[in-house]
Amino acid sequence: MAPPADLRDWIALLEREGELVRVTAEVDADLEITEINDRVVKAGGPALLFENVRGARHPLLINQFGSERRMSLAFDTPSLDHVARKLEDVLEMQPPQGLVEKVKGLQKLKSIADSLPKRVRSGVCQEVVLTGDGVDLDLLPIQRCWPGDPAPFITLPAVITHDPRSGVRNVGMYRMQKVDRRTTYMHWQIHKDGRADYLLADGRLELAVALGLDPISAYSASAPLPKHIDEFMLAGFLKGSPVEVVPGKTVSVDVPANAEIVLEGYIERDELGLEGPFGDHTGFYTAAEPFPVFHVTALTMRRDAIYPSIVVGKPPQEDAWLGKATERIFLPAVRMTVPEIVDFDLPVAGAFHNCCIVSIRKAFPGHAKKVMHAIWGLGMLSLTKSIVVVDEHVNVHDYEQVFFYVGANVDPKRDVVLTEGPLDHLDHAPSLQFVGGKLGIDATAKSPAEGAREWPPEIEMSDAVKELVSGRWGEYGIVLDAGARDGSIGHSSQPLRRLLRR
Ligand SMILES: Cc1cc2nc3c(=O)[nH]c(=O)nc-3n(C[C@H](O)[C@H](O)[C@H](O)COP(=O)(O)O)c2cc1C
Ligand SMILES: [Mn+2]
Questions:
Q1: Which residue spans within 93-188 are E strands per DSSP?
Q2: How far apart are CA 144 and CA 29, in angstroms?
Q3: Residue 243: which pLDDT band, with cuts at 50, 70 and 90?
Q4: Is 176 close to ligand 1, i.e. is its CB under 6 Å away?
Q5: Mean pLDDT to the nearest integer, 414-433
Q6: Which of 40, 132, 410, 413 could lock 45 by a disulfide, CB 3.0 to 4.6 Å apart?
Q7: How confident is the model at residue 483 (pLDDT cuts 50, 70, 90)?
Q8: Residue 407 exposure: Cα atoms within 13 Å on the Cβ side
């Protein structure tokens, strides 16, 4: 098996796996779909294909990413950790020793070479081409997500730009508020690569927006890669086959051949409009702010194109799983820079930038504080507002366990770091937008060198007694669930997953 090649392939797979429901009843893209989807997401329910959206010609797909099982199906992998391992394999490549390793090394290098996007002659994304006055966003079932939103928003786009200096492609997911039939805003926040391309452009920046991609390519638009790395290369690597592109009809930007829908157009350097407010993934409405205006010069699509959407809001929502994919897939890259990191967790309730829990192999006094500062200097993780550092044996995904060590191991005066730095564009709490306070909590065991008294041993039953009790369990006549019987209760490795399924 290979990961789905396009959105049709993906929908067929979801359907075969009992992971998709087709809704034929007429529904309204104005708020109604949000409420239906919200109930389904919170119940751990299936992807939804709304085939009859009032006033729109095209169906709407939502909740395609809304469970761990669907994420694994999308990546054609048993778990997201397997995806990370594939990446780790390449990142940790050592000079090969012996012939077998050399051959393996070459295979790995080939998998990178094969990841580059490939130009093809034609693409289904251009079966229908509407230009000029023919462009009509009203054909699409664009959702107005929350009652305070002033207009419908395109929420699951892959926005393709090129760095005007280097030509390197960037693909990012930035919501687009509909202004009229041929115009939207482009919500690229100040830390994002798409915005950097726009600021580097002298006057007009041409771009393209792909909607309805295979799930890995769609995910890659949300991946926080360094600016000089093309997200479609990551997509190609994770898919095991290149993203195929064709030249745009009205812009010098290549577009994914397999997209359901493509919007081509341009942004003028100094043309801004008041975007928002928008019910955001922070759980609050973000205030209206000036953002660039996107003029659509062509709307191209497949015949019977399917429009993809997602709703963000108070967590947990569907985007939790896109974030979890990034957390897992980027762990090897984080470890490349900070190898003492064992694992990390970005709690969904923390909207990803509010909190990071990290476990480390502690080797010297002050080590936890070193790791905090490393994270505050690392790519998009630099926007993290609070960091909790625990020792390597602590399961960062088990929030009760983490809470235990934060309570038990911390002298607030000695172990809490208060500093300041850049914060997420959407964070409404700091006094100033973009900069403010940072909190670090060192919940590792401390040594006298760090000003602590002798650290007490943690309570553990001996292995001999555990084995004895396991062996004799049947004799006691006590019935418990499986976790408790083998002594693993209270150390559940998947509390988040349970929470999200609830
Ligand atoms: C559903 C969803 C919606 C998003 N909306 C925005 C947005 O409106 N503006 C933005 O700057 N980032 C948004 N993001 C985050 C970016 O996609 C993410 O930071 C990505 O790494 C940006 O690409 P870049 O690093 O190439 O700029 C969104 C992410 C998701 C999953
Ligand atoms: Mn980027």
A1: 118-119, 128-131, 153-154, 158-162, 169-172, 176-180, 183-185
A2: 6
A3: very high
A4: no
A5: 98
A6: 40
A7: low
A8: 6
Q: Which ligand is nearest to the CA of 172?
A: 1
Q: Which helix (H) or strand (E) holds 99?
A: helix 98-113
Q: Which two tokens stand for residue 55?
A: 């006033």
Give the mean model confidence (pLDDT) for residues 164-187.
Answer: 98
Identify the H or E element spanning 246. strand 244-247
Say how many CA atoms lie within 13 Å of 135 toward its Cβ. Answer: 20
* 482 vs 39, more confident: 39
> Any idea which residue has 């990551």 for tokens?
234
Residue 31 region by backbone torsions, left for phi larger than 0, else alpha for psi between -120 and 50, else beta: left
Give 364's contacts (C-beta < 8 A, 6+ positions apart).
none
Ramachandran bin of 370, using left for φ above 0, alpha for ψ from -120 to 50, beta for the remaining angles: alpha
In whole angstroms, give the CA distance from residue 302 to residue 8.
Answer: 11
* Atom 13 of ligand 1, residue of closest alpha carbon: 174
Would you say residue 235 has pLDDT above 70? yes
Tokens encoding 252 = 């010098």
CA distance 487 to 249: 63
Structure tokens at 117: 């996007």
Which tokens belong to 293? 């205006």
Residues 6+ apart with CB under 8 A from 12: none
Residues designated as active site:
280
Residue 362 CA to residue 371 CA, distance in Å, equals 10
Query: For 130-258, where are the alpha helices, taking DSSP H only?
Result: 193-200, 215-220, 231-239
CA distance 377 to 121: 43
How would you label 32-71 residue by residue, b for 16+ Cβ within 10 Å and e otherwise?
A: bbbebbbebbeeebbbbbbeebeebebbbbbbbbbbbebb
Answer yes or no: is the C-beta of 297 below 6 A from any ligand 1 atom: no
- Separation of 326 CA from ligand 2 center, angstroms? 13
Cβ neighbours of residue 377 under 8 Å, at least 6 residues apart? none
Task: Kindly tell me if the per-residue pLDDT of 65 is higher than 50.
Answer: yes
